[in-house]
Every structure is written in structure tokens, then in C-alpha cells.
Write a structure and sequence with these properties.
- By secondary structure, the chain is of the alpha/beta class.
- Helix content is 44%, strand content 16%.
- It has helices at residues 10-16, 20-31, 36-43, 47-59, 83-96, 100-128, 131-139, 143-149, 167-172, 186-196, 235-245, 267-271, 281-291, and strands spanning 34-35, 64-68, 71-75, 157-161, 178-183, 203-207, 222-226, 254-260, 297-301, 312-318.
- Helix 3 (36-43) packs across helix 6.
- Helix 10 links the parallel strand 5 and strand 6 (203-207).
- It is elongated.
- It folds into two domains: 10-125, Orthogonal Bundle (Arc Repressor Mutant, subunit A), CATH 1.10.10; 143-318, Vaccinia Virus protein VP39 (Rossmann fold, 3-Layer(aba) Sandwich).
- A seven-stranded mixed sheet has the order 6-5-4-7-8-10-9. The protein has a three-stranded antiparallel sheet with strand order 1-3-2.
Length: 326
């Protein structure tokens, strides 16, 4: 219930809104009713910290609290606010804009709500027969993803650009004719060799940069590039190189790029050497189009609530026939 103190001054109401975290909380709770734990997942903060902020907002009269069993759910209900409070919040909210941080919050809320629904379905599924637990016990947790990879044509050659330690190559190699693992770092290539060991004889390791791929024109059917472009000074030419080495005469000519959505974590430039703070969907479309792919299919990847990084996207572009010449 709303806090009963109706004699709060304007300064006291403003004091409750003086913290950026509390503003993010109010933005969230205006759109969804969330528990303390769910708010903590979205903001990626400890529950104790979130509880303190919720207490301040509750005492300031901004929140409605609903008890369900042992869990407390919170919501901002504009109709329950006084005219002064509502006007104050609408004014403050209008000044927040659409920062990458708020966009991340919105994406994480969607994930939390989806997980809530999944948890409910899974609960009733277990009650009905425990099939998921039985299936995992009998066959493990990863066979579905491995089975889906077998949809790749067996005769394809796939380039894993910026292969790192080889996790993509390891997954794809059993399903295609050859994987070309490319990375500019020899230590990374060595780590990938150790990872794959002797179990993937169809993986060829090549040292080279994404901006100047050491591959022939129209020599691969597909390219996978995971979490690489944000490290590249000029992503456009890098995508142009991918278009150059692709061939589309066997149903291929497809490039899959997975990277971070636009975000505001400037510290990544200093701590991890990132050149770009992610990419907007519009920018991804421009880069693919300029590289000769045309408009890509860009989709946001639904993240996991415990993941601490920015949101991710998957972009798929195609070239028809032979790719560009060098």
C-alpha cells in the first residue's frame, strides 16, 4: 500500500528522486510490477541495495506494494499519486531521455518477465510428469543445440572470423566439411588448437586480421563472427572483407555477426580495449549495406538475467553468387 504520510513537502518528494538508481527503479515499476529480486536482476545490483532504494521510494509515497506469499511486489500507479506527485514524476521522467543504460534496463525487464512465465510453465511441467528433468538425466542439456547445427549443409566451408579460443569452431566442425579458424593473435590460435585437440581434423587455423582476411575470393560458404566487430577500428571494411570471401552458388553466401547492442559502458574502452560501445540496429544495417550484403536480418538475442554484459544482437547478411573481388 501507499505510504500514509500525505504531508510530505515538495523537497522531501524531490529527495526521494535525487538518486539515479531510484529514477531507473521508478521507470521500471511504472511499466511492470516487479519483486525485489526481479528489480535486482534488471539493475544487476545486490538485493540489499535494491531494498534500500525501494524503502526510500515507498516512504516517499511513490510506490504501491503488494504481498504475495513471502514475496513483495512493487508498482508505480500514476492514478494513485496526487496531482502534484504525478506532475513532478512526469516532469522528471521527461528529462531522463533514452540513454543506452535505460535501453538495457528495458531489455532486461523483458527477459525477467519471460523467465517468470517460463518458470511457471516449467513448474507445472514438472508437476505433470517431470519430463524435462528425465530428459536431461537421460540425454544431457546440450543435445538440442547440437542437433540443430546438423541443419548446416555437410559440404559447406565455414570461416570462424576472430575465432578466439575456438568455441564456435568446436560446435560447427562436426557438421560441415571444413572450418577455417582465423584470428590475428597467435596465442588465441594456440588456445583454439589445444581446445579442439585431435578431435577436429577438418579445422584449419590461419593467422590474420578481420580487416584483411587471408582467404581467397569466394572461398567459403558461410562466416561466423562473434564479439569481434567492437574491437575493430573500421567495421565497414571488415564486413567488406567477409563479403569478398563468401560465395553464394551453393545456397550459402551468409554471414552471421553477433555483437553488443549500443550501450554506455565507457569503461570497456579502457579495461578491455573496445573501439565501439556496441552498435544500434540502424548502424548495423548501414554497415552491412555498405559492405554489399544489402539489408541484414537483425534480431536481439534474449539474454539471461544473470548475464552482466550489455544486450546482444545477431545479424545475418547474404551475398548472391560470388562475393566482391579484392
Amino acid at each position: 500500500m501507499k505510504h500514509p504520510n500525505i504531508n510530505l513537502t515538495v523537497l522531501e518528494r524531490l529527495a526521494a528522486l535525487s538518486d539515479p538508481i531510484r529514477l531507473r527503479v521508478l521507470r521500471l515499476l511504472e511499466g511492470e510490477e516487479l519483486s525485489v529480486g526481479e528489480v535486482a536482476k534488471v539493475l544487476q545490483l545486490p538485493q540489499s541495495t535494491v531494498s534500500r532504494h525501494l524503502k526510500v521510494l515507498g516512504e516517499g509515497g511513490w510506490l504501491v506494494r503488494r504481498q504475495l506469499g513471502t514475496a513483495s511486489y512493487y508498482r508505480v500507479v500514476l492514478d494513485d499519486l496526487s496531482d502534484d506527485e504525478r506532475g513532478l514524476w512526469v516532469t522528471v521522467r521527461g528529462q531522463l531521455g533514452d540513454s543506452p543504460e535505460l535501453a538495457e534496463d528495458a531489455r532486461r525487464v523483458e527477459t525477467v518477465i519471460a523467465e517468470r512465465a517460463t518458470d511457471s510453465v516449467s513448474f507445472f511441467g514438472r508437476i505433470a510428469g517431470g519430463w524435462d528433468a528425465l530428459r536431461s538425466e537421460m540425454f544431457g542439456n546440450h543435445f538440442t543445440a547440437q542437433a540443430l547445427l546438423t541443419m548446416l549443409p555437410r559440404d559447406w566451408v565455414v570461416a570462424d572470423v576472430g575465432c578466439g579460443t575456438g568455441n564456435v569452431a568446436e560446435l560447427v566442425a562436426p557438421c560441415v566439411n571444413e572450418v577455417v579458424a582465423v584470428d590475428q593473435s597467435e596465442p588465441m590460435l594456440e588456445a583454439a588448437r589445444r581446445r579442439l585437440g585431435g578431435g577436429a581434423g577438418n579445422v584449419r587455423f590461419v593467422q590474420g586480421s578481420v580487416e584483411s582476411l587471408p582467404l581467397e575470393d569466394s572461398s567459403v560458404d558461410a562466416i561466423v563472427c562473434v564479439l569481434v566487430l567492437h574491437h575493430v577500428d573500421e567495421p565497414g571494411p571488415a564486413l567488406g572483407e567477409m563479403a569478398r570471401v563468401l560465395r553464394g552458388d551453393r545456397g550459402g553466401g551468409v554471414a552471421l555477426v553477433v555483437d553488443m547492442l549500443e550501450h554506455g559502458r565507457v569503461e570497456y574502452k579502457h579495461t578491455m580495449g573496445h573501439k565501439h560501445l556496441g552498435f544500434s540496429e540502424a548502424r548495423v544495417g548501414e554497415l552491412f549495406d555498405e559492405a554489399g550484403f544489402g539489408a541484414p536480418d537483425v534480431r536481439t538475442i534474449r539474454g539471461e538475467s544473470q548475464a552482466k554484459g550489455p544486450g546482444l544482437f545477431a545479424a545475418v547478411g547474404r551475398v548472391k553468387g560470388a562475393g566482391r573481388k579484392r
